[in-house]
Each structure stands twice: as C-alpha cells, then as structure tokens.
Amino acid sequence: MSVGNSQPQLKRELGVFGATVMGLGSIIGTGVFVSIGIAAGIAGPAVILAVAIGAIVAIFNGLSSAQLAANHPLSGGSYEYGYKYLTPSFGFTAGWMFLVAKTASAATAALGFAAYLLNILGINSDWVVPTAFLAVVVMTLIVLNGIRRSNFANIAIVSVTILSLGFLILVCLPSTIQRGSENFTPFFTGSLADVLHASALMFVAYTGYGRIATLGEEARSPRQTIPKAMIVCLAVTMLLYIAVATVTIGAVGVDVLAGAIQQTKAAPLEVVARDVTGVGGALVLAIGAMTAMLGVLLNLILGLSRVLLAMGRRHDAPRFLSRLNQQQTTPYWSVIVVGVAIALLVLVGNVKTTWSFSAFSVLIYYAITNLGALKLSSQERLYPRWIAVLGLLSCLFLAFWVESSIWQVGLGLIVAGLIWHKVRQGVSC
C-alpha cells in the first residue's frame, strides 16, 4: 500500500552519510560490548570468523529488507511485508518473533548497562539485576512521556561509543602485537558447530540495520541511498567488531575475555580495559558502553511499543494496546506492556540466555523477510533473487545452531502465537 499524495510527507534530507550514521547508532551497542564476550566463550579465537559470518548473513537480509521497504514503505517492517506478500500467519509470526527478539535484546542491553555501571563503581555484581530492572523502569517512564531521541543525540551517542571503542583498540594493540601469537594459538579451540553457534549470536549484533530500511521517506534517492548506506554501515560495523575481537583476545587471551562474563555478569570489555590500562581506561570504555546500551534500550522500548500498537490495530494483539494518550503521542498501554515484558526478562539475569533467545527469534523474523523478498515482481526487485535465497537459507540454518533448549522454546512460542492468532481470527469473524 503506497502513501497517498494527499498525505504530508517527511522532508528528504538524508544522504548516504546521514543514513549510515543512523544505522550505526542502531547497531553498535549491546552486540559489541556484551556478545563478543559470550561468543568468544563458545568459539574461542575463531569468534573473529563468527563475526564475519554474521556480517555476511546480515548483508543478505539487509538488502532484502531494503528492497521490501522501497516497494512497501510502511511502519511495521516484516510484520507488514508478511501480510502483503505472504499470508496473515507469516505476517503475524514475523511481528511475534520481532517482539520476542527485541524484548530479549532490550533485557540484554539493560543487564549490560547495569554490569558496566556497577563494575566501574566497584559494586558487587549481585546488584546487576536490580539495577537493570530500575533502568528499564526509568526508560519506560521516559518513553511514556513521549521523549524521543533526536538526530543530534544519536550522532553524539555514536561518537562517544566509537571513540571509546577506538580507545580500547589503541590501548590493546601493543599487547596484541606482543602476545598475539600465543593467545591466538590454537585458533580453533572447538568444533565447527561452536563457530556456527557463535555466528548465530554475533548476527544479532548487526540487526539494527533494519532502522536504515525504514528511512525511505526521509532519504534522498532512496533506491540508491538506502542500499549504499546499508552496505557501508555493515562493512564499517564488521571491521570495528573484528578489530575489537582481535585486539581484546590478542591482549588478554580468550579465557579472560570469556571469563569476564561470569565475573561481571555482562561487562567483558571493561574487564579487558582494566586489565590493560587500569581504572582510568576502564572508565573511558564503560562510559561508551553505558551510553550505547541506554540508547539501545530507549530505542527498543519505542520500537517495540509501536509494533505492538500496529498489531493491536490489526487485532493480532489485544485491542486495548492500540489506545493512545490524550495528546495522541504515545500508545501508553503498549509502552507499559513492553516495559513489563523487558523487566520480567531482566529477572532471568543471564545475558547468554536472553541474547540466545534474541538470536533464534530474529533469525526466524529475517527468514520471513527474505521469503517476502522472493515474492517481489521483476519490476519491484532491486537485486537478484539469489540474495534473498541465500538470506533465507542462512537464517534458517543458523537459527538452529543456538542451544537446543532455546530453539525448542522458540518453536513453542511460535506455535502458541499462531494458536492465539487463529483464535483471534475466529472471534473476529
């Protein structure tokens, strides 16, 4: 469904640079500050390979998202694409998996923020869960008041984050040059299954690229700008992630990086910075981490509540979730439900579990995205069909390399969601 000419349109101001910065702001956060430590514990030094595999899969999915957004520029992402190009069940499943994935990502961001804050303050990690819970409450209240992050704030957050990671790379580089050969030997400490498991987790670290696909109405020449920004953004992110993984493992060894997850609950890079530079360097790194993860948490509450609003309007979720406040600026019930869901997942207290749930769910979500892209006509298609085919196959393949208990629960949630969807359809009829 296209937007009618009578509707007011956003001004087309974004070029490739602006769209790339927006994408970087949505991507760089929990993935680099938390998941590299988790994935290193699974794959060892070969986590560097997992970072690259995750990026390749993300590029396939990003290009499929971009061409769907170019032809169907509505909010809701693959939830809407599933309805338009596939079936209501596929559309519902995409929306449901998005909610599960991003709620788990938000919980991981809250736990990561809390771990970095407490570690730098020297407070016992037993307080990570209560602190993360409080962060979710505060961010939910901010969203309820309708406060949105501006482009200026986004650029500031990206700048602080990249500067702190650049600092980490520079301070770790001498130790990496000195000890790298021993810390990277052997490179493969586990099996191919471990590398694929780590790849599935690292893929989630890229998934903010979907934000670029939603900028079609604001971008100059969107059919050229969005794909270019997507590829540049993912390439920059991959190089940054590989650099961080390489220097942290090279400087302190994979055991220290992976063990930091257990030690701090969710602040591995702060432990590395403290080990290499002392408290001062750890503080610089922690500030970048906390800023990034609070931004991620705020954006996810905003985004999740809007998807829940769209599902409520379509009656795929309870209708009361589509209610707006008196000023017509905030879907207050949706925001509250999202905040409660994230807070409950925070109580799990284990970033590996929450991140793994996010990995399975988001891979299923993007499998549906690629399936939708395969339904585009030759006139609508921007890229060859094989891109969507490889995206679909790689998503389905990686999804089942997470721990079996995670994908089994994930499949159960899909079935439960589809039962709800069918029951709601029956009631509506």
Automatic annotation (TrEMBL):
Residue stretches spanning the membrane: 14-40, 46-69, 90-115, 127-147, 154-177, 189-209, 230-261, 281-309, 330-349, 355-376, 383-400, 406-423
What topology in the membrane does the UniProt record assign? Multi-pass membrane protein
The record's InterPro entries line, in alphabetical order, gives: AA-permease/SLC12A_dom, APC_superfamily
One Pfam family here: AA_permease
Q: An example Gene Ontology cellular component term from the record?
A: membrane
Ranges for domain Amino acid permease/ SLC12A come to 19-400
Subcellular location per the Swiss-Prot or TrEMBL entry: Membrane
Coarse class of the protein's main subcellular location: membrane
Look up the record and give one Gene Ontology term from the biological process aspect.
Answer: transmembrane transport
Keywords, ordered alphabetically:
Membrane, Transmembrane, Transmembrane helix
PANTHER family for this protein: AMINO ACID TRANSPORTER-RELATED, MEMBRANE PROTEIN
Put simply, this protein is called Amino acid permease-associated region
